[in-house]
Amino acid sequence: MTDNVTSDCIIETVALTKRYGDKLALDHLDLRIPRGRIHAIVGANGAGKSTLFRILLGFLPPTSGQARILGRDSQQLRPDDRGRIGFVNEEHTLPGWMTVSAVIAMQRDQYPRWNQQAFDEVIGHYQVLPRQKISQLSRGERAGLNLALVLAQGPELLVLDEPTLGLDVVAKRAFLESLLYSNAAEDCTVIYCSHQMEEIERVADNLIILERGQLKNMSAPEDFCARVTHWIADVPFKGPEPSTIPGLLQLQRIDGLHHYLVLDQDEDFAQFLRASGARSMQSMPVSLDRAVNGFLTKNHAAPARA
Ligand SMILES: Nc1ncnc2c1ncn2[C@@H]1O[C@H](COP(=O)(O)OP(=O)(O)OP(=O)(O)O)[C@@H](O)[C@H]1O
Predict the structure, then answer these.
(1) Model's pTM, two decimal places?
(2) Are 132 and 249 in a shared domain?
(3) Given the CA of residue 213, which atom of ligand 1 is nearest to it?
(4) Does one domain contain both 235 and 130?
C-alpha cells in the first residue's frame, strides 16, 4: 500500500498484526471499511477491538502490517488529520472541575469547523445546564455532552468504543437518536463498537465481527442474521452426534425436543435431521442477538491459540 493510493475506504488494514508478548491480539487482519454509514464492530471480550482502535488512532504501533485511516498511515497522523476524527469511549473523560459552559467555550475555540447547531441538537436530548460542573453530571449526561462536543467538531469519522456502557434505557435511546441524526445530517462515517446487539440492530448498516484478531464477518446485520437458523426437531434418543451436525453453533435439549442453532445451512439440513430419525421438525429465523451470540459462543469456548 503506498501513500498515493486514493482509497474509497475510510479505514483500511493489511495483514495488521499486534502481539503483546505471547498474546496475539490482531492476527493479519485485512479490513476495508467504506466511507459513510454506521459500521458496528462486535466480538467477544479480548477479540482485539480496542487494540484495533488504538492502532487506528495512532496511540499504539502495530507489530507488523499496516493500518490506514482517512487515507493516511495511522502512525503518521498529523494534528489536522486528528481534527477530522472524533473519538468517544465509555469513560467519557472530561475535566470534572470545569463547568459545562467553559468546556463548550474551550472546544469552540479549538475547532475551526465547530457546528453550534449540531451541538444544540444533541445536547437538547439531555438536562444539562451550562453552569453545572462536569463532576456534577450523571453518567448519561456526560455521555451526551461528550457526543455533542465531538459531533460539533464536524468529524469526517466518528469512532465510538462502547459509548453507551452503563447508561440507562432512556440515556441510551437519546444517545442513539443523536447518532442517527448526525450520521444522516452530517454525512459522517461512524465506527461503533458495542456488545449491545439491540443497539446495533437499530443503528448499524454494516456488521463487522472480529474473533481472536481475525475478520469473521462483514455484511449488513440482516444478512448475517439470515445465515443463522434455529431448528427444533423431535429426534429419538440423544439425536445425532454433535460433531456430525453441519454448521452447528449451539445445541440444547428442552422438554424432550432438540434445538439446533446452525450456520449457513439450507433445506439440506432438514434432510440431515430426517436421516437422523427426526419425527418432526421446524425452522425459524433468529434475532441478531441470538445469531451473533451463538456464533461467538461457539468458538469462545475453544482453547485460545497463542
Ligand atoms: N497492554 C496489554 N498487554 C498485554 N495484553 C494486552 C494488552 N492490551 C490488550 N491485551 C490483550 O490483547 C487481547 C485483545 O484485547 P482488546 O482490549 O483489544 O480486546 P477487546 O476486543 O477490546 O475486548 P473487550 O470487549 O473485553 O473490551 C486480549 O487478549 C487482551 O488480554
Answers:
(1) 0.87
(2) no
(3) 14
(4) no
Q: Is 304 touching ligand 1 by the criterion CB < 6 Å?
A: no
Q: Ligand 1: which of 16, 17, 20 to mutate, most ligand atoms within 8 Å of CB?
A: 20
Q: For residue 182, give every residue at least 6 positions away whose Cβ sits within 8 Å of its Cβ, in sequence order, or none.
A: 118, 121, 122, 151, 158, 188
> Following DSSP, what letter does each residue of the chain receive, concatenated?
--TT---SEEEEEEEEEEEETTEEEEEEEEEEEESSSEEEEE-STTSSHHHHHHHHTTSS--SEEEEEETTEEGGG--HHHHTTEEEEETT----TTSBHHHHHHHHHHH-TT--HHHHHHHHTTS---TTSBGGGS-HHHHHHHHHHHHHHT--SEEEEESTTTT--HHHHHHHHHHHHHHHHHH--EEEEE-S-HHHHHHH-SEEEEEETTEEEEEE-HHHHHHHEEEEEEE-STT-S-GGGSTTEEEEEEETTEEEEEEES--THHHHHHHHTT-SEEEEEE--HHHHHHHHHHHHHTSPPP-
Q: How confident is the model at residue 140 (pLDDT cuts 50, 70, 90)?
A: confident
Cα–Cα distance for residue pair 203/215, rounded to 1 Å:
21
**Least reliable range by pLDDT among 45-54, 93-102, 167-176:** 167-176
Structural domain containing residue 262:
223-300
Q: Are residues 206 and 227 in the same domain?
A: no
- Ligand 1: residue of 27, 50, 191, 193 to mutate (most ligand atoms within 8 A of CB) is 50
Q: Look at residue 24 and tell me if it is in a domain.
A: yes
The residue nearest atom 2 of ligand 1, judged by CA position, is 20
CA of 303 to the centre of ligand 1 (A): 16
Average confidence score pLDDT of the chain: 88
